[in-house]
Amino acid sequence: MSGAEEFVPETHDLAELADAAAQCRGCGLFEAATQAVFGAGRSSARIMLIGEQPGDQEDRAGEPFVGPAGRLLESALEQAGIRRSDAYVTNAVKHFKFGMAQRGKRRIHKKPSRSEVVACRPWLVAELVAVRPNLVVCLGATAAQSLFGGSFRLTQHRGEVLQLDDEILLKELRGADPAIVVTIHPSAVLRGPSDHRDEALEGLVADLKAARAAAAQHSV
Question: Is the Cβ–Cβ distance between 40 and 88 less than 8 Å?
Answer without folding.
Answer: yes
